[in-house]
Amino acid sequence: MVAEAGGTDRGRAVPKPNDVQAHVTTFWGTVAADYEAHAGNVAAYGSAEYQRWVDTLASVLPDPPGDVLDVASGTGYLALAAASLGHRVTAVDLAPAMLHELVANATTRGLAVDARLGDAVAPDFSPASFDAVTSRHLLWTLLEPASAMVNWRELLRPGGRLVAVDGFWFTKWDDDDVPALFAEHYTADARGHLPFMHLDRPEPILRMLTAAGFVDLAVEPRPDLSLGGGVPYLITATRPDEPTGDAVHD
User: Fold this and answer.
1) Fewer CB near the terminus (10 Å): N or C of the chain?
2) Which of 37, 85, 80, 44 is nearest to 65 (CA)?
3) 226 to each of 81, 141, 178, 213, 242, how far by Cα in Å?
4) Number of Cβ within a 10 Å radius of residue 14
5) Is the peptide bond before 243 cis (omega within 30 degrees of 0)?
6) Are 171 and 69 in contact (CB under 8 A)?
């Protein structure tokens, strides 16, 4: 039984965060093979729409070649775009099936991406290993965004950039309006553990980035990057060149 949003299900225990993450990872692993076949998920490789994404990424990443970490990379949409720009790209994801698709796409396109099984919240790399950390359609489904942002800041070299493309996809929720498989894994209980899932504005994200120690924050709606499912927002932030004191953990 799936509890409806805003309702109660007294016969079920409230899931632990680890259980919620298992649900989230299972969902994305299940849809991996067909993810790029569904309209609205990605722009077709080689299309004008795809090139707009590549050009946008080029405009906010450091000059290549740089070391780029793409977190929750999925099928590699941003990772492969960054690699095509001449960057050295590492991609992590918790769903092995997604990484399988990423590697296949990289092979088809003749691009090199170091694809690894790993957690977006706490990527297992040494501090100051990367010039940029990127993500796409991730923030809304993070259980611990505050911890993730602090960790991403530590992974960046001074002056490194954080680049996130996300949107406010679920400002309203109706179980009847979402695919059954999605509703099965993103239950009301699970959604209650995702702080950004039902946001309708970027300010909470920007406040959390500031608390994590980022500077030079910017957010811009980008309807030109829309794939039919709403307006994406381009969010950028920078690790300062000089220490700014201890980051605040929420």
Assistant:
1) N
2) 85
3) 17, 19, 19, 30, 36
4) 10
5) no
6) no
**Residue type at position 63:** D
Distance of alpha carbon 69 from the chain centroid: 11
Domains identified in the chain and CATH numbers:
17-238 (3.40.50.150)
Measure the CA angle with vertex 11, ends 6 and 17; round to 5°.
65
Ranges of beta strands (E only) in 34-155 are 67-71, 88-93, 113-117, 130-136
Kindly give the confidence (pLDDT) of every residue in the chain, 250 residues in length, as a single tens digit, with 9 standing for 90 and above: 122 222 323 233 344 667 899 999 999 999 999 999 987 899 999 999 999 999 999 999 999 999 999 999 999 999 999 999 999 999 999 999 999 999 999 999 999 999 999 999 999 999 999 999 999 999 999 999 999 999 999 999 999 999 999 999 999 888 788 889 999 999 999 999 999 999 999 999 999 999 999 999 999 999 999 998 789 999 999 999 975 455 544 4
> What CA–CA distance (Å, rounded) separates 30 from 164?
24
3-class state of residue 31 by DSSP: helix
Q: Token pair 């709403």 is at which residue? A: 230
